[in-house]
Amino acid sequence: MHLSLSPQFFARRTEVQAHLRQRIRGEVDIVHAEDPGSPSTLDFDKYFTFLRTKTFGHQILHRHALPSTQEFLKKQLNLVDEHVVVLADIQTEGKGRGANSWESPEGCLMFSFSCTHRVARTLPHFQYLASMAVVEGANKLAGQDIGVAIKWPNDLYYRDQSKIGGVLCQSSSIGNDRFQVVVGVGINTENDEPTTCLRSMAKGSVNGSASVSRESVLAEFFNSFEELHDALEREWGFDALKDRYLSHWLHSDQELKLRHENREVVVLVKGLTPSGFLLAQEKDNPAIYYELHPDQNSLNFWEGFIVAKSWGTCSL
């Protein structure tokens, strides 16, 4: 069932919140609210036929164009229920890690959603769950591995050739040992410019390129994410999922030069540390390991080096 609100559906907090929650918590289980002035190019009925989740992806708030779904949702967190998805057809100021930004034209799938989390030490793993959900959802639609790969920490690539998307997770404490996590995803789904897209990558696959659409990719993302999120919560950690994640990334045993001031060593990427950061082993001294954080280092995997802003070793 469709729920239509005015284009300014967040303008009147009390009225909109009460109306939305009454409908959602009543007889309606799956709802989407959209801007009547610029209806979505997505077929929501088609989307819901693919969706198999118990919790995630059931409530969608749509705008045809937004500067950033991530920033929009962060500003409206106190107005919407948990797990509500903000979706835009066009994004003009998309957010990336650090100060990075990009524009996203039609044909891209751009959305953000939030959830509450209680285990602080596993917060870094949320971006890994979202990245895995894109990879595994796309492969499931195509019926085989179509080459979607993870470039650590949060980029999505076609093999090691072209960037096709990315993930951004931002968390904040909301008290009582709870954290609000806003997850943003952008993935080039149906538009070959400027690199390639999932639909083209699925050509020649078991199910063919017709299996890939923004509706099916969005639904399969949430189908996969819910299963991964449930595993993280159930196991109270990422250990049970780590090998699965590493099977999708591009870096196992990649050789890099680690530079800091006047010192340089050659390291091999060995996986993730228990806290969820990059684990590197010194090539000539295998007893020495380094934990590398994405926001404390300049990473250039394709050029083969890491410029460390801080230098330190870790123990396993």
The helix-strand sequence is: HEHEHEEEHEEEEHHHEEEEEE
CATH secondary-structure class of the largest domain: Alpha Beta
Overall spatial form: globular
Structural class: alpha+beta
Number of domains: 2
Tally the beta strands. 15
Distance between the termini: 52 Å
Whole-angstrom Rg: 20 Å
What low-confidence regions span 5 or more consecutive residues with pLDDT below 50? 1-29
Mean pLDDT reading? 82
Overall helicity: 10-25%
How many helices?
7
Give the biggest beta sheet.
Answer: 9 strands, mixed
CATH architecture of the largest domain: 2-Layer Sandwich
**Full CATH superfamily name of the largest domain:** Bira Bifunctional Protein, Domain 2
Percentage of residues in DSSP E strands: 25-35%
By CATH, the topology of the largest domain is BirA Bifunctional Protein, domain 2
Concise summary:
This protein has helices at 13-25, 44-50, 69-75, 126-142, 198-201, 214-235, 239-246; strands at residues 31-34, 59-66, 85-95, 101-104, 108-117, 148-151, 155-158, 162-175, 178-188, 255-260, 263-272, 278-282, 289-292, 297-300, 305-308. By secondary structure, the protein is α+β, with helices and mostly antiparallel strands. It has 2 domains: 13-246, 2-Layer Sandwich (BirA Bifunctional Protein, domain 2), CATH 3.30.930; 255-308, no CATH class.
Structural features, described:
The longest helix is centred in the last third of the chain and has 22 residues. By secondary structure, the protein is of the alpha+beta class. Helices cover 25% and strands 33% of the residues. The chain is globular. Strands 1, 2, 3, 4, 5, 6, 7, 8 and 9 form a nine-stranded mixed beta sheet that branches. It has a six-stranded mixed beta sheet with strand order 13-12-11-10-15-14, with no helix packed on it. The chain folds into two domains: 234 residues, Bira Bifunctional Protein, Domain 2 (BirA Bifunctional Protein, domain 2, 2-Layer Sandwich), CATH 3.30.930; 54 residues, no CATH class. It has seven helices and 15 strands.
